[in-house]
Design brief:
170 residues; alpha/beta; five-stranded mixed sheet; 6 helices; CinA family protein; CinA-like_C; CinA_C
Length: 170
């Protein structure tokens, strides 16, 4: 394992993702919001990850989600940044803006503020899109992680996103 400041379990899972996708002949991209690059950082901790990890988009603001990933302002205004519709559009955008075979998007509320009754701190939405898959086959999920601090929410979200990058996971 590399010498890293990242949590060991994050780097170990990233290593599994790189190995499994290399074996499957797949390249990956990520579109991150609340994780702020944590998934990309974990993947790039792995030596040789460049033959699997194609691109990472950190789109923290709605304007950047729209500009870089082509998420429609209508989707953002109607459903909000933390929604299945937005995560799905982010994943689709990461595929379109890269040459990756699979993309995972993460958007959520890491805290300590920003939550609401409908979407409390710890609410994170994930989506995975695969090149060539039917566009109506939405693979997305909203999770509610324990609010154990901003770093804890971000770590839980990054681990979940990495799991979605494993071939055969849904």
């Amino acid at each position: 394992m590399p010498d890293t400041v990242l949590p060991t379990r994050l780097v170990e899972l990233a290593d599994k993702v790189i190995i499994a996708n290399r074996r499957a002949g797949r390249t990956v991209a990520v579109a991150e919001s609340c994780t702020g690059g944590l998934v990309s950082a974990a993947l790039t901790e792995i030596a040789g990850s460049s033959d699997v990890f194609e691109a990472g988009f950190i789109t923290y603001s709605n304007d950047m989600k729209a500009e870089l990933l082509k998420v429609s302002h209508d989707v953002l205004d109607t459903f909000g940044a933390v929604s299945i519709a937005t995560a799905w559009a982010m994943a689709q955008g990461a595929l379109k803006q890269s040459h990756a075979d699979v993309a995972v998007a993460i958007t959520g509320i890491a805290g300590p503020g920003g939550g609401s009754d409908q979407k409390p701190v710890g609410t994170v939405v994930f989506a995975r899109a695969e090149r060539g898959a039917s566009p109506d086959k939405v693979v997305a999920d909203m999770r509610h992680f324990d609010n154990d601090g901003r770093g804890g929410v971000r770590l839980q979200a990054a681990l979940c996103a990495l799991e979605l990058l494993l071939p055969g996971e849904a």
